[in-house]
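ARCHIVE CARD
SHELF: 3
SLOT: left
DATA:
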Amino acid sequence: MIDLEFLAEAFPQVLASVPVTLLLVFVSIPIGWVLGILIALVKNARVPVLSQLAGVFVSFMRSVPMVIILFVSYYSTPLIIQTYLASIGLSADVSAVPAAAYAIAAFVLEQAAYSSEVFRSAILAVDKGQIEAAQSVGMTKPVAYVRVVLPQAITSALPNLNGLFVGLVQGTSLAYFVGVYEVMATSTLLANASYAYIEAYLMATVIYEVLSFVFNRIFRVIEGRASRYLNLTAPDASAQTA
């Protein structure tokens, strides 16, 4: 039988941990996706050395389980920082850094790796003739990328970015392993006292489902508006290049 009393008492506490989950997502996503765009541009431009390093980074991040990246970030990063500071005659209390910061660092790297492939394919799908047309009306190549290529690439990439976003919402549950008390960690902590694990994970499931549903709907609205915007501006761009 489901322990309704436990659900009534524990649900508000689990719900109170949702902002921590959202913090992990909304800090990791913008930083990770900006890095992903930069990596995509470097790989598409085939910049010597940098493109090879980017390729190794993406391959490594896509082949290693996220929980391992979290452990490396949480346990190794403080030692690296402390060793470096000691080498230059400085000292700092690295234990004062919250566990969420290390989790965010790991999620940023993951998002950068996965989103770079999404952005790379989306950029390649944009007709190269549009860059030439933009340059013919006085735009430099970087400006053409920012004003012409990237808006179209990001719009076409939105369905895949939606998947990455929702995947990270669910993936934040792994932050429990490094001591971040988000939805999953709070649910497990409350369940430990009364062994009500079914009820605890049921609550977590409901919260993740609601969050995923909400963000899926938001992305659909953004996709629709972005598509309409590009359709409205396309004739003007054609007129300028005619």
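SLOT: right
DATA:
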Amino acid sequence: MHNEVSERIAALDWDALHRDLDRQGFATFQPILTPQECRDFIESYQAEELYRKTIDMKRYRFGVGEYKYFQSPLPARLQQLREAFYVPLSAAANRWLEQLGKEPRYPGTLSDFLDECHAAGQRRPTPLILKYEAGGYNCLHQDLYGEVFFPFQVLLVLNEGDEDYSGGEFLLVEQRPRAQSRGHVIRLKRGAGVIFPTSFRPVQGTRGCYRASLRHGVGTVTEGTRYSLGIIFHDAT
């Protein structure tokens, strides 16, 4: 993997990823970060100049753990990840709107979408790095930071399950109207990731498509330390 990370993202099987998104609401993909790139992100956790804010999750009753929001300008590799994932996901976002009877509204480039965020007063970058030690977890939630939001986000795991940590599976829970919730437990290899909805997804019903709400979180880490990288495409107020 000596090519640019944007080329690795473009080389993913996007036809299959789009099918998975439409069929089940989320899609996993093979490792696109090298072990060294993962280590670089983990080592950068201590570089406070890279971050605009640190959140102690226990203090806010979000769970147990810590995460840090990157500040502008984003590190070059993170910027590549954000830009390269946005392009194919904007097509999926517009397709989902059409399925719900709405007009497509998401532009084809991240910079144009961020212009909309900034015009709405959302100017603070939202990509983040998360750290969970033994006993850590993340409660089910949605990452909405203002009126403008992108309907997908991406999570990449930065170290290896069953080697660097145990537990800490990614959790995704879907709630359909007048029905019980459905949960997904997703395990990812180092450098791999999952694409999932920020808020909702369209589901085909007997009278057309309707919205199913989704929330995500992280199960309890039982041993070691788990690091992950969250790529959120909308900026925050």
